[in-house]
Structure formats: structure tokens, C-alpha cells
Design brief:
It contains 17 helices and 19 strands. By secondary structure, it is an alpha/beta fold. It has three domains: 1-130, NAD(P)-binding Rossmann-like Domain (Rossmann fold), CATH 3.40.50.720; 150-289, Rossmann fold (3-Layer(aba) Sandwich), CATH 3.40.50.261; 291-457, Succinyl-CoA synthetase domains (Rossmann fold), CATH 3.40.50.261. The strands form four sheets. Strands 9-8-11-10-12-13-14 form a seven-stranded mixed β-sheet, with helices on both faces. It has a five-stranded parallel β-sheet with strand order 2-1-5-6-7, sandwiched between helices. Strands 16-15-17-18-19 form a five-stranded parallel β-sheet, with helices on both faces. β18 (410-415), α16 and β19 form a beta-alpha-beta unit. The longest helix has 20 residues, at 438-457. The structure holds acetyl coenzyme *A. The site of acetyl coenzyme *A has 27 residues, from α2 and α5.
Length: 459
Amino acid sequence: MENNLKTFFKPKSIAVVGASKNSTKIGHAALKNILISDYECNLYPINLKEDEILGLKCYKKLGDVPDKIDLVLVSVPAIKVPQIIKECKQKNVENVIIISSGFSEIGNNELENEIKKIVKKSKMRILGPNTMGYKNASDSLDASFVFGVPRKGNLALISQSGALGIGMIYLANNEFVGVSKIIGVGNKLDIDDDDLIDYFSTDPETKVIGLYIEGVKDGRAFMNSIKVCDKPVLVVKAGRSSAGARATESHTGSMAGSDKIYSAAIKQAGGIRCRDLVELFDMARALAGQPPAMGNRIGIITNGGGLGILLTDACEENGLKIPKLSPKTYKKIDRILPEIIKPNNPVDIVGDAGFYRYEACTKALLEDPKIDGIIVASVHGGYARPREFTGAILKMIRQRKLHEEYKKPILGTWVGGKEFEDLVYDLKSAGVPIYPSSWRTARSMFGLYLEGERIKRNG
Ligand code: ACO
């Protein structure tokens, strides 16, 4: 039976080959990260000369360990790795993470092929080489050598770049986007993006999958995994420009391929291509916490006319529509608004809008069958009331009943300074999708719309 990565992400026993007492070495950091994880497993440092490291009994070689080993992390110089893989094979190890660099990313394909030959016809799965490993936040296991503790959540992140993968942990934390797993795929000798998409598609802790890729080895398998995955797949594909494509070759040895072909293929498979990492996190936050938009008709509520127009433009540029209000909704909103203004879409609820206008107008749009998603916006104009705006959003988004009844997404956006930011901080930490730019808000709504389209296509 094929190894389906279960023991890779949830190993009962782990060995670190190249574990060291020297705290500046990667093998020391890898061992320590596993040791301090709030995760129960047997842990075995392997070192040629030590008897004990970090209080753990040390073994000279894998064969000496008196236990079955589910996962081995390898942190010895590249030239020694094939021998370690042979030992893993002899010990029937199921999964290996090769942290070591010095393989195809520097043109040393021969060494990588040597490993491929050793593992051929075995069911051993290999991550890397040239990888940071992974952090399984759902189960609190850190099988990497790098710092950074991700906030627990529902986004599975796959990164072809190690450093960017680490940066993404901090960015996600900063954005209050929780992560289920984050994994660096390195040179993708064996475990590839498609394997991980397949795994995360059935992982109960993962609701959204996000990838940073520079190139894929098996385009057909990659697209097929996205196609059969019943969760949103967000893809940041680097190397869009010809200079960027050149840079991917020298970074991970990847061929960037035709950007247009990538875009078309990702779209056809049902994935969502994001322009950058911030957009990936924006969309992930919306997709993890909101229902998809089952159509492209968006209602906008704003206390500032200018912001309403900016949102309208950004939505229309992304293929979303801002339709006129139906007569029924017009009447409802007309009763809510002050005399001086008539309802429209965007619904201008006027600069002094308080809690009631925000909440009542949003409810009116939720009830309108010709509106598929709602954006609620606030400008911190001189006499605006940001606290009432954020309070209304928090209340509406937290009301599960509201979501279950109408099944429409609500996104927030704002324009203001520090005092507004403090309030938005509370919203973000509560998982509310709120953005400091009309463009980012519209793009996130577009992501929800594409997810709605995917669901409709798949019946
Ligand atoms: N069995 C057991 N122990 C061994 C063996 C062996 N066959 N061979 C060596 N060791 C021991 C060493 O004696 C040493 O222990 P010591 O400190 O007690 O002497 C330990 O294993 C490590 O071996 P070193 O030869 O000291 O190797 P070092 O730690 O300097 O480097 C490393 C190894 C980290 C894998 C390095 O070769 C490398 O590839 N570095 C780059 C890693 C990297 O960046 N990967 C990409 C990550 S993605 C990103 O960018 C974040």
C-alpha cells in the first residue's frame, strides 16, 4: 500500500541524524524543535560520537535504535546523505526529511539521482532535499529547524522557498491567519505539491490550501490534484516576468514555464491565482471564515461616498457587479436612512452612521436574493463612529444564525489611522475578514466568488 503521509505528519517515533550538542548547528535546532513541541513521540538523536544530547539517549546509527522509526530528519553534509538513506531503507523507515542542501539546486543532480535510485520501489517518502521541514500546528509538532510558531488555524501552506516559508509564518501570525500545517518542499525529489494538496484535501484541520511555487515538476498531476480537491486552493506562482523566470532558475533550479499557461491551467483546474502573499492571506482569511459568494452581485454599504466609488471600481475591475437595488430593498433601506439621502448601491449611510444603520442596511442586503455578497465600509471622517462600525461588523459576523440563514459573505474595509487600527486589530484577532484597502477587499470578494463558481461547477 502506498504511504499516504499519515505517519509523515503524525509520527509516533522520530530520529534526527546529525543531531548535535553544538547549539549553532542545524541538527541541534531540529532536535530541539521536536523536543519542545507539545507532541508525544519517541525521539532519537543520532550522532557518531555522543552518548546523550539534550537529555536524550543518543545512538551511533539508525540501525541501533530499538524501535520502529516513522520519520527521520537528516542534517548531515549532502555527500553523506545517500548512505543515511540506505540505512533508512534497511530500517524500513517510512518518511525522511532531508534538510541538507547541495543537490540539484546547485546543479548537483547526480547526488539527487543516487538517492532516487536507492528509494526506487520502496514505499519510503522523502521531503526535500534542501528543505526547512514542516510545522504541524494542528498537532503541535515542529519537525523543522527554524524558529517561528504559527498560530493554529485552517490554512495549510506549502512553500517552495524555505526562507519565504518562514516569513509566511510571521506574516500569518501578524495577520491573525491561523495555520494547520506549513511545509517547505525544497527540491521536491519525491513529495511534491500534488501529494500535499491530496493530503490536505482530506485533512480535517485544513479548510484552505495555499502554495508558493516557482515551478512544478509534473504539471498534469499538480492540476489534477487541484481539480479533485474539494477545498479552495490559492496559488502564488513566482516568475511571472521574464526576469523573474530567470531568477527562479537560479533560486530553486525551477523552470518557470509560460506564465499565461500556468494562469489558464490553474483557473481551469479550479484554483485561484493570487498576485502575492498578502493577497493569499487576504483571500485565505475570507475563505476560512465566510461562506462563498454564489454569484458576482455585490452590495456595498459605506459611510463615505468616495470609498463606495473606489470599492465599486475595484469590484467591477475584478468581474464583480454592483447592481441597482431591487424595489423591495430600496424601500427597506429608505426607511433606515436619514431624509437627506436616497438609497443606492453603494448604499451611502452618511458620515455620522452609527451601529443601527450599519446593521440594519447589511441585514436588508442579506435578505435581497439579488445580492450575493456584502462589503461594509467605514471612513474615519471627522464625525464618524468607528467603534459602532466595528461593533456592528463583529456582531453580524459572529452571528452564526445570520450566516446559516443567508449563506452570504460579509467583508469589511476601512480608511483611517491608528485609532481605527486598534479597533480593527480586535476584529482581525476574532477572524473577521477586514482590509485596509478597497482593492484588497474587492480581490478577497473575488476569491469568494471564484470559490462559489467552483462549488457550482462541481455540483
Ligand atoms: N551519522 C551520525 N552523525 C553524523 C554523521 C553520520 N553519518 N555524519 C556526521 N554526523 C554528525 C557530525 O559529527 C555532527 O555532530 P557534532 O556537531 O557532534 O560533530 C553533526 O552530525 C552534523 O554534521 P556536520 O558535519 O557538523 O554538518 P553541519 O551541521 O555543519 O552541516 C548541514 C550539515 C546543516 C546539513 C549542512 O550541510 C547544510 O546543508 N546546510 C544548509 C541547510 C539548509 O539551509 N537547508 C535548506 C533549508 S530551507 C531554508 O532556506 C530555510
